[in-house]
Design a protein that fits this description.
about 500 residues; alpha/beta; Rossmann fold; UDP-N-acetylmuramoyl-L-alanine:D-glutamate ligase; 2 domains; 10-stranded mixed β-sheet; 7-stranded parallel β-sheet; 20 helices; about 15% strand; binds ligand NPW; binds adenosine-5'-diphosphate; binds potassium ion
Length: about 500
């Protein structure tokens, strides 16, 4: 079994502000800032040597702060190792201070003034302009230089972050380098994973620069990269002597006769996610369409919201999905209310979210009154209907956290960088490219997977994170040509790999 704590610790993400606190804590523990910078520059030089042939021509762009200091150290080390290094500095040498000034004093080569027209002919360009200290948008001469570098087709190695990427939000502030590789220090930052930042980083390397892990507990961190190390230890594993009832019973609420497909996708996904039983709750008119397609999934006839409440009063039915194909309106609100009165974990997807557009407080109050978990799975459009005041927030992690706290639910703000947040502030960001997921019905599959894991009593935040990761993994295994029906069929391979990793731990 893996060391759960250390796996989770390795996945922690630090904002630039938290990273500054980690740096200071390390210094208070006796590790000098100058040594941290020396280690950072050493890590940069090592990566530069991987990209650039020995003796090649390296251009280092150094900024006026400590990010520039890292660049100055790397420049010195590369020159010592036989590379031809040019260094262009933003601002004057005299204005450098602290550790960066020490790094500059050790640099024996020439200094060019940084400008948009600088000669870019080099085998490698090291971007050491701004990192954690980016305090405003890049403009004017520096922005023109960034654009010229991006257009010149030479590899860029970014120090800590591609300059112009906000380390907290992943947003481009004015202009940003497109790097082939990024070397960051101690831990990744949210801006490496959130979009568009992730697309600017290239391959990310995390270097140990001597900051001890002992500084972490005092930072009270609650943000992780979404990866199996985060939830592997709480994934449901079937018992050798187990029976289907022990694996939970998921109910999916079907849409009307003309819109049953979405619920069927969710039901199949819940089964493949491991729920022992899955039932479809359907009004009489939808039953013929459902019966023609369903096999392992059972059909339970219900009559309106009251009928649904009656069905869910059986506590063995311990997870329910409502929303896929449900239709927007009062009838869906009533059915959602019936679900929330039950003791089951409830997944609110699609129309179940949108239906509360004009009365979000009614939804939040109903959630507050129950103790079993609630999940909400909005994409940006659905999110903006339920949380209009948060929609324009530039920080995707912060807005998802605020929504989760307000709703009292685990909120999954979907997209290519899906953020999962729990009401207690824990959050995780997905970093797996799976562009094939941009096809109709994949959200319905995700909702079913969450309910399938929740039925097996996986803790709510972990179930949501695991479902998002497994969903993307399934898409990556299938690859081009994926349609939503393919996703549940890829889950056995996803499970097998996860089980193999568990055995290998
Ligand atoms: N000891 C440590 O802590 C360690 C830190 N390390 C390294 O330090 C980095 C953080 O260093 P940092 O805090 O000095 O910030 P940094 O990213 O260099 O930028 C600040 C400078 O840029 C300027 N500036 C900002 N935005 C601008 C803009 N748009 N356009 C123009 N100028 C702009 C800003 O100017 P000001 O706002 O003050 O006028 C200021 O001069 C971190 O990413 C890592 O690489 C490692 O060595 C490990 C040990
Ligand atoms: N470009 C993309 N890269 C990765 N995942 C994506 C991308 N586009 C969409 N997704 C994922 O696909 C799913 C789409 O869900 P949703 O928008 O609700 O679609 P639908 O309503 O058709 O089921 C979400 O899980 C989302 O995160
Ligand atoms: K940089």
């Amino acid at each position: 079994m893996c060391d759960h704590f250390s796996a989770r610790e390795a996945l922690l993400l630090l904002t630039p502000e938290q990273m500054g606190r980690a740096d200071r804590a390390a210094m208070e523990a006796g590790i000098s800032g100058s040594l941290l910078m020396e280690n950072a520059g050493t890590a940069v030089a090592m990566r530069a040597q991987e990209i650039c042939p020995h003796g090649g021509h390296v251009l280092v762009l150094a900024g006026p702060g400590n990010n520039g200091g890292d660049g100055l150290v790397a420049a010195r080390l590369l020159a010592e190792r036989g590379y031809r290094v040019r260094l262009a500095l933003l601002g004057s040498r005299e204005k450098l201070s602290g550790d960066a000034a020490i790094a500059a004093s050790r640099w024996q080569g020439g200094l060019e003034k940084l400008s948009a027209g600088i000669d870019l002919s080099a085998d490698l360009i090291v971007d050491a302009l701004f990192g954690a200290g980016l305090g405003r948008p890049i403009e004017g001469e520096v922005a023109a230089l960034v654009e010229a570098v991006n257009a010149c087709q030479r590899p860029v190695l970014a120090v800590d972050l591609p300059s112009g990427i906000d380390g907290r939000t992943g947003c481009v502030r004015g202009a940003a380098f497109k790097a082939a590789k990024t070397v960051t220090f101690f831990r990744e930052k949210p801006g490496h994973i959130l979009l568009p930042g992730r697309l600017h980083c290239g391959e990310i390397h995390v270097a140990d620069i001597g900051i001890p892990d002992a500084v972490l507990p005092d930072l009270s961190l609650k943000l992780w990269r979404n990866h199996p190390g985060l939830w592997h230890d709480v994934l449901p594993v079937p018992d050798v002597e187990g029976h289907k009832y022990a694996r939970g019973h998921t109910v999916v609420v079907s849409g009307p006769a003309h819109a049953t497909g979405a619920a069927r996708l969710a039901a199949r996904a819940a089964l493949r996610a491991g729920a022992g039983l899955v039932s479809m709750a359907a009004e009489e008119d939808a039953i013929p369409a459902l019966a023609a397609h369903l096999t392992a999934v059972m059909i339970k006839k219900v009559d309106g919201a009251q009928g649904l409440a009656g069905l869910l009063s059986d506590a063995r039915l311990n997870a329910v999905v409502i929303g896929p194909g449900a239709g927007v309106g009062q009838a869906t609100c009533e059915r959602v209310a019936a679900c929330l009165q039950s003791e089951a974990a409830v997944v609110l997807d699609a129309d179940a979210v949108t239906s509360f557009k004009d009365q979000p407080a009614r939804l939040f109050d109903a959630i507050e009154a129950r103790s079993a978990p609630v999940f909400m799975t909005p994409h940006e459009g659905e999110f903006s209907r339920l949380f209009p005041d948060l929609a324009e927030h530039a920080d995707k992690v912060e807005k998802t956290r605020k929504a989760a706290e307000r709703a009292g639910a685990v909120v999954l703000l979907k997209g290519a960088d899906t953020v999962v947040a729990a009401p207690d502030g824990r959050a995780a960001i997905s970093a797996r490219d799976a562009p094939w997921l941009a096809t109709a019905g994949t959200g319905d599959v995700l909702a079913g997977m969450i309910a399938g894991l929740a039925a097996q009593r996986m803790p709510a935040f972990d179930a949501a994170c695991a479902a998002v990761w497994m969903h993307a993994d399934a898409a990556r295994r299938f690859g081009p040509g994926l349609i939503s029906e393919d996703l549940p069929e890829m889950l056995p391979a996803v499970w097998s790999q996860l089980a193999a990793e568990r055995c290998a731990d």
